[in-house]
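Structure first, sequence second, as always.
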């Protein structure tokens, strides 16, 4: 029973992190409208801010407001953009240069 609860909580935490990354990617996507970017940006700042309505050090309740803010932002994204744009934000397949893999810096010549 306890192991099932831990597994379930871990899966929920991973899902919340993925939704947070989707919000951050939507901030840079050119096809996301400005008002959705504004909401996602404010939500990201709220989650990252140490000053919140319900502080995170309060067990369970402190994290619920973060979950609510992320969920509402994702809900607005789903209504504001097409499913292909949302999939690009989820998968990270869109980049400003049209490159799907991260760029690597050239190595410095050895002396």
């Amino acid at each position: 029973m306890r192991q099932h609860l831990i597994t379930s909580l871990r899966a929920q935490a991973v899902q919340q992190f993925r939704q947070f990354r989707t919000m951050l990617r939507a901030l840079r996507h050119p096809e996301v409208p400005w008002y959705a970017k504004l909401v996602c940006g404010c939500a990201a700042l709220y989650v990252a801010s140490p000053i919140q309505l319900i502080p995170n050090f309060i067990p369970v309740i402190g994290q619920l407001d973060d979950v609510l803010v992320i969920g509402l932002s994702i809900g607005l994204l789903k209504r504001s953009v097409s499913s292909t744009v949302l999939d690009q934000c989820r998968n990270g397949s869109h980049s400003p240069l049209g490159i799907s893999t991260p760029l690597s810096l050239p190595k410095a010549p050895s002396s």
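Margin note: The chain is about 65% helix and 0% strand.
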